[in-house]
Amino acid sequence: MKSQIISTLNGSKGIEIILTTPNGKPCSRDEITAIFSYKFNCLSNDFIEEKVDAIWEGKCNSNNRLYNRSKFRFSGLSYNDQIIIFKIGLTSYKELMGTNCNREFGLELVDLGKKDHSNASAYLSNGLGVGALLITKDGFVVFIKRAMWTGEEQGKV
Q1: What is the rounded distance in angstroms from the CA atom of residue 29 to the CA atom of residue 18?
Q2: Eight-class DSSP state of 40
């Protein structure tokens, strides 16, 4: 399996995962599984909750089109008998805006996660997203531009 480390807005490291077998071919469905559990949700405490609430309130006051909904949370990968296991929990858009998408507080949470749990992303939302490149049968590439009112990555193609 190959992976490339990329920096996220708060300075934490994200992972772009490209799953391949040892011979370089893409993994098949029977080589990948996922475990969904509340155990994989981000950790929190009263201080973090209050800070995230304040950040979210500020975002909503400046953008009345934002709304909070559940998102899947990427907690990590593990391996068992040549099976790749995705650990997936739940988070929310509010948690994403208050942790990963908030540079100052996000960096503080990275340090706190390392100190408290030896895990830099313990207190981060790590909302799971999907990216794709669509090439049509006749050779066109389809692009989508994000709305300018979204909470993060406004106008990104």
Answers
A1: 14
A2: G
What does the block give as tokens for 133?
């490149």
Is residue 82 classed exposed, middle or buried when 0-12, 13-18 and 19+ CB atoms within 10 A define those classes?
A: exposed
Write the DSSP symbol of residue 12: P
Total-model pTM? 0.74
Q: What is the DSSP-derived secondary structure letter of residue 122?
A: T
Do 111 and 12 form a contact (C-beta atoms < 8 A)? no
Residue owning tokens 């300075």:
11
Contact assessment for residue 106 and residue 24, using Cβ atoms and an 8 Å cutoff:
no
Beta strands in 45-113 (DSSP E): 70-80, 83-92
Q: What is the pLDDT of residues 108-145, one digit of tens each?
A: 999 999 999 999 999 999 998 766 677 888 888 888 88
